[in-house]
Every structure is written in structure tokens, then in C-alpha cells.
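FIELD: query
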Amino acid sequence: MADQAPADRGGFRGGFGGRGRGGGRGRGRGRGRGRGGRGGKEDKEWVPVTKLGRLVKEGKIKSLEDIYLFSLPIKEFEIIDHFLKDLKDEVLKIMPVQKQTRAGQRTRFKAFVAIGDYKGHVGLGVKCSKEVATAIRGAIILAKLSIVPVRRGFWGNKIGQPHTVPSKVTGKCGSIWVRLIPAPRGTGIVSAPVPKKLLQMAGIEDCYTSARGSTGTLGNFAKATYAAICKTYSFLTPDLWKETVFQKSPYQEHTDFLAKHHKPLGYQRQEQKQY
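FIELD: result
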């Protein structure tokens, strides 16, 4: 009895619990189920639980850039859905991870999801769960919460629309360094498949890349690329040397509205139960 492990724990032998590469089957099924589940949930009306959520729902904040300007943390993925209607998500990888227990291994699935609108917003989400569908759904939500604006620039003369990264930027995760280098128009994205997908979702058309370290580790490779993309707005280039005009943050500006429409959390929960 003691030697025999429960079937759902994966057993002692056989690596990933005898599932092998059967992840492909689970992956397809899980992805479909995940999308169906999200469709059903969207029918419910969104009841915001944060101050920022309430301001967005009432139309007091007009764009996502107003939130980024004041570095306000976004805690509800519905805020992103409200502003960015045409987001596309892609599952980069689903990998089984294991924990050794007394009964054998406990296998869970880790999903890496990239999300973007191909127009200057990109996010990356990582979620671990017992089921593939739940992991993908959670990773999509985390990817939405991690969406950042991407600054684009020119390689030479400022003709037409910005098409590449504004300057050389570097990102690091684990042993991996990823460097993004501006490229002339028409070059395309010269990179490995993982950074290429993220850069395309960010809306960058031309870019040279350089990577060093253990780039076979897909999760860290994606995170390093995401870190590099995040840095595009952290460089203060001469064209941004304008005088800073300080404005009130949305919380200060709409303080009367927030005070007037505030409901205790317990009251909000009761409201949700009624629906």
C-alpha cells in the first residue's frame, strides 16, 4: 500500500507522472475550456472594489495613460478590459512542475501567457495550477495586470510613424541578458521566437536583439525581454526635457466623488450575492 502512489499524484517513476508529452492533448482542451469560461463570466456586471476601479467605471479617468502618468497600481483586470478592447493573448508555454510529497510527486501546470494590442501595450503573466485551463485563465489575468506602455522611436530621421525601440535597452532575468537595439525601417525583428512574439505584440516593427545566458529557459527568456521592453520609458531622452507641469492625481482630483460614493466592503459583497 505504502509503495503505491495515488494516480493523480503521478506515481514515483515516469518523470512527469506518466503524462509524458500528453500535455499537448490537455493543452488544447484546457485552452478551449479556459476561453469558454471567460466568456460566461463577462456577462456579470463588474462591481469595482478599488478606488481606481470606481473612477474608471464612472468615466472619471479617460485613458490608460492617465493611470501610468501617476504610477497608480492596477489591481483589477477589468480596468484593462475597459480601455483596451482589442487585446490578443498567446500561450507561450505550458510546463509541468513537480513537488515531492510522501505519496509521490504532485504535478501542477505552469502557464506562460503574453498579451498585447500590437499598438504599444504588452504584458506577461505566469500562473501555476493543478489544471491547465485554470493556469491559462490565471496567467491571462496576471498578464493583463502587468500590461505596460511601450515607447517606440526611430532609427535615423524622424519620418513617418515610430517603428523601433528609441534606444538600446537591456533586460535581465536569471542568467539571461536580452538587449534590444534600434534597427532601420524594413529590417523586421531579428531575434529568437520568444522575444519576437513579445516585440510584435508590443507594436515594434524593426529591432535587432542580442541575448546571452541560458536562453533555453523559456520563462526567464520571456521575462528578460519583458524587462527590456519596460525600460523603454525609463530613459529620459532630450526630446522629453520639457518643463514638468504637475497635475493632481486622479485620487486628489475626484476626492469628493470617492468620499460620496464609498460603500463598505461588506455592503458590496451583499450586493454581489443578490445578483
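FIELD: remark
Strands lie at 88-101, 104-116, 121-129, 148-149, 169-173, 176-182, 189-190, 207-212.
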